[in-house]
Every structure is written in structure tokens, then in C-alpha cells.
Amino acid sequence: MHFMHQALQQAALGLGRTAPNPPVGCVIVAGGEVVGRGFHPRAGQGHAEVFALQDAGVRARGATAYVTLEPCSHTGRTPPCADALIRAGVARVVVAALDPNPVVAGRGVARLRTHGLDVHVGPLADAAVRQQAGFRSLITRGRPWVVYKYAATLDGKISADDARPLPVSGPDARALVHTWRNEFDAIAVGVGTVLADDPHLTTRGVPGGRDPRPIVFDRHARTPTTARALRPGTVLVTGPDARTDAHEAAGAHVLRAPTLHEALQGLGALGVTSLLLEGGARLASALYAADLIDEVRAFIAPTLLGAGLPALTSPAAHAPRALHDVQATRVGTDVLIEGFLTAIPRVDARAEE
Amino acid sequence: MHFMHQALQQAALGLGRTAPNPPVGCVIVAGGEVVGRGFHPRAGQGHAEVFALQDAGVRARGATAYVTLEPCSHTGRTPPCADALIRAGVARVVVAALDPNPVVAGRGVARLRTHGLDVHVGPLADAAVRQQAGFRSLITRGRPWVVYKYAATLDGKISADDARPLPVSGPDARALVHTWRNEFDAIAVGVGTVLADDPHLTTRGVPGGRDPRPIVFDRHARTPTTARALRPGTVLVTGPDARTDAHEAAGAHVLRAPTLHEALQGLGALGVTSLLLEGGARLASALYAADLIDEVRAFIAPTLLGAGLPALTSPAAHAPRALHDVQATRVGTDVLIEGFLTAIPRVDARAEE
Fold this sequence. Notes:
By secondary structure, chain A is an alpha/beta fold. The first copy, chain A, has 2 domains: about 130 residues, Cytidine Deaminase, domain 2; about 200 residues, Dihydrofolate Reductase, subunit A, CATH 3.40.430.10. In chain A, about 25% of the residues lie in helices and about 25% in strands. Chain A is built from 11 helices and 18 strands. In chain A, the strands form 3 sheets. Chain A has a 9-stranded mixed β-sheet, sandwiched between helices. A 5-stranded mixed β-sheet of chain A has the order 2-1-3-4-5, with helices on both faces. In chain A, strand 1 and strand 2 form a beta hairpin. In chain A, helix 3 packs parallel to helix 4. The longest helix of chain A has 13 residues. The two termini of chain A are about 20 Å apart. Strand 14 of chain A pairs antiparallel with strand 16 of chain B.
């Protein structure tokens, strides 16, 4: 397996845990073998390169480091990783993608080269950029990367007319969604879904999984204080005048935002880099109309419903918008179709060649 | 390639041309090589076995015949094919599927065995039964096999709110639909589609293609006499009291049917074995509500529309209905999801073992 692929696998161990930092992985290779592995486990803890160098010990001298993101050149909560690689005597550094953080953005690579290290940028850049979508969104736009996930019947319905949830997708699709919940910083629903379904919004069936932070879009603070989604850390996004005393007493963080754009900026300020939007159709349609959905992951079930609500229910017809980088995969009995509405922010591709 | 697969390919040459007969193909194999090929080209012309035997000549003696459907044992417009195989000295007959026609239904195979031929039933039975779905529907239910084909956006819309057609699917999907039109006896639309779109309902871009018979469901005979779909042979399905003088003068065949069920029985009486339903949503929803759709072929395009009409718009919520034998295929930029609501009529599977 490609060493950079192994570095990406290391980075994935931190997904959903590193905000507002990116998930980063690193492997140190000497004599054609991996001699050190590391990943960034959590903001405030060590960076991937540091753990990998510790793991490699003296074998790092003259070795090649594979890193999923450009090593930092500035002192944040930890000293710059570029310097750690230099000090350890690493001879060559392979970087998947440059850091879009304007504080770094090529300076990490430049610092390594100044100290005589051989640096190669680009392998598996697309996969790395995808893995870092949340960080890249937050650092360049100040708001999380928003993924609208839904399960629809073949005739395009996500629920019956009465808005009661339907088990549209199969068990394999539902299990996959739980692995996503484990990897996203936050999970968002509208108050309609809370009132109709009272969802747990937790990660289930994933070994070592942790729950994403629940975000409830609830302009008039209609969420019952007994709702399962309401727990310490839950963000209640309301209009300016909503009465939220009881919700705050229940541990909710209230984010007052006049517009959806401001709501997402507010979530960004809270360090939320990635948001899994799970419904309902009304919230998703409002975010779509405001051009705030970046990616779509739709499970299409081989089932017909006849009547029901579609995934998007905008009041007026829009021009069709094509997704790009589309992937279609069979997941159990369902078909998962994924694609992007937004290009993930990245540093000029030519610089990454 | 499997000899039965070659026989199915022969049969496919007759698709859309043999009604009310089935498409049937035959290859004669001697010494491990195909020495004769034939298919049923059109009702009233020779059966597949006869053409294949003519093609094989004296090499048929002692050979094996692969036939996609049980050879007939009765004298219809042509003498029984079982007898032709016996007379030609064929030693072994491999049959994909038994004939559901109660006049045959195992008697063709029995007749062959009585005359000492070795008969094996079952290879590629599922593929053969699919290819013969129209014939099997007509012979057992008196009505055509109905396939609802549509192209929807990922958010489940087949057209914008104003019912104007949208180029939802890509060029590869549209080309594939034309190959289907070439293979179906008839193509159906509702009058709403005729009024909004004035479709040609022809087969385009298929070498040797022929046009399916247009069927317009038009209770009150609102189809303009200048509509492109109105040509000699077009069936106008109306209510009992519609005024249709002008349509009949334009060459349309008027089928007066109080219910959709009677309309399909009427089409069956006209010899229509297979019907490709191309919209709109209102006609499809009415047929779906009446349990008259047998198969669905949906192209899902990686595009979002926001607002628009779904593929089915029944007035009331139904229980979800699962499709069976589902296939998902990437077709250009789209995903084609196919599945069945009805089991294709077949003779007891154990008899086909």
C-alpha cells in the first residue's frame, strides 16, 4: 500500500476529534519500511509528525516522512513541526497537500527546503483535501463544511406526507451513517425533525466512536427541554428573540443568528469544522436556497412510496445545479450517490505539483 | 460465450417486432460450434427453430439446439416447432424457459422427449424470462408488461414546477432510452405531456430501429390533431364520452376505457405485449395507484433542482413498496436503478430445473 495512504489512515483516526485543527497523519519510512506512525489526536495535543518521530526514534535519521498536510512553520500551541522534522534528521518529506492556512501556505515546505530537505508535494492530494474539508472550510471561510445526507426512495421521497420518519434505507446504509457521525464535528437537524422524531443524534455501533455535537436549528426555541438531542454541548440556533432560559438551564449553548449564513459563521466561531446535516427537508431546503450546502450524500433505496416529501422542497423552481466529483456505490440494498456543490478550498494546484 | 447467450442475442433481434408472439432465438451446435442461427422476426413468419434449422442444413442431424423458449407443440400460424426439430434429427434440445402459454406449458418438451430427444430446461432461464416479459404478461394476464421509465434529479424531481420538461439525464441515458423504444411494442404518455412537450415518441439514433406504437392516455381527447404523437396507428385512450372524430380522421385508433385496468386490457387485445411508460407523473401515479406498473427503470442524475415534480405524486401516502431483482448501473453521468414490482409470469420454477 502507498505510504501516503497509510498516512491518510493514521489521520482518519483523528477525524471528528481535532477541531478546529485538521486531522493529520504521518508515517516515517526507512529502508522501504514504515518505522514510525502518528496522528494528531486532539487540539492542544501533539501534531502527527511529533508522534511519528517519537515512534521512529533514531531510525528517523535519513528517513522519509509522509505527511497528509504541509508541516506547520509557525508556533501555535505546539512548536513548528517543520523544525521537529529538521532536528530529527529526516532527509525527505512527502506532503499530500499544502496548508490553506495563510499563516502556513507553502512556508512549511519552504522552511524544510531551506534546511536541505528534499520535499515532494502532491501524492494523494485529492484524498487528503477531502479528508481535510472541514478544516479547509473553517480556515478559509470561517464556517463548517456542510454535508447534506439523506435517504430517499427511488421516487424521491425522504418521508411520508405526515413528516413521520420512514426507515427508507437499509441496515448497511444506516451503519455507514453512524461511521460518518463519528467523524463529523457536529450533526444538525431542524426543530421539525426533533418534534416529529425526537432523534438521539448519537453514534451507535462504531467501536471507539464518540457522539457529534448536536445542532438544532430552532428559530422560536420550540425544542422541548426533554428532547433527546438536548444535552450539555448541544447548540440551539435561534432567532434573536427566542426565549431560551430553560434550554440554557438544560446545558444548551444558544446561538442567536438572524440568518443561516450568520448561524454557520457562529458555528465556525465555536470551532465546528464539519457539519452533517440530517434533515429535515425544510432546513435543508433553506440552506440549499442560501447556497450553504457544500456536499450531498444521498442513499437511494429501491422502494417506491407514491406520496411523500422530497429531499428538497424549495418554494420556487431553481436552475438545476450539477454535482461534481460524483461517486456512486452500492451499499447493501441501497445506492449511495455522493457529490460536491462546492470545491474544497485548496492552495493553487500548481503549487502542489 | 454460452450458446444460450447467443440464442438470447438472436431473440433480441426480434424484440418489439413479434407481438403478440414472443421474441425467440435459436442456435444449432454441432461439434462444439454454432452451425445454425435463427430468430422469430415477426408474427406470421417462421419461428426461430425453423430458421436455425434451415441455416444448419444437414449439420442439424445429431446436433444440439439451444432455444430461448420451449418449442411449440401445437399448430398455430406455423406447424409445431417441436416436430421440425424431431424431423431434422436433432439429438438434444436445451431450453431456457418453459412456455407459459397454457396450450404449450411443458407439452413441447414432453413431445420432444417422447421422440427420444434429450431435453434440458433451465440455462439462463432468468434472462430469457425477462426478455419474454411482454409475451408472458399478455398470455397470462391479457395486458402488456408496463415499465415506468423516468429520469430524476438526485433530489427526486423529474421536471420543474411548471411541468416543462427538463433535460434531466445525460446523453448516454437518452441514447439508452432510444434502444428501449426500439424494443418495446408501444410507448405511453399522458395528454399533459403531449400538451406541454409535443414529443415525437420515435426511436432515434438506433441503426435499424423502428418506432414503437404511441399510446396517449387522454380521457377527454384534448390531444391536438397536429400533435407529433398522433400518427396512423397511435392509440388514443379516452373516456367513454370523448369526442374523437378529428383524431380518428388523423389515423388514431380510439380505445374507450372507463378504467386504467380496462385500458390495459384493451391494449392487450390490440396485441400490445410491452409498454414503455414515459410520463408524465400524473399518469404514472394513477397507474401506480391502480397497481398496474410492473417494472421501474429510473435514471438518477447527479443534479439538484430544489423545486419540482417527483416521479410519483399520489394524493395519499401509501406503504412503501420494495422493488425486487434490483440492478444499479452507471450510465454516463447518471445512475440507472432498475427493479420489478411484479414477478414476471413463468411456469413453476421446479419444472424448469
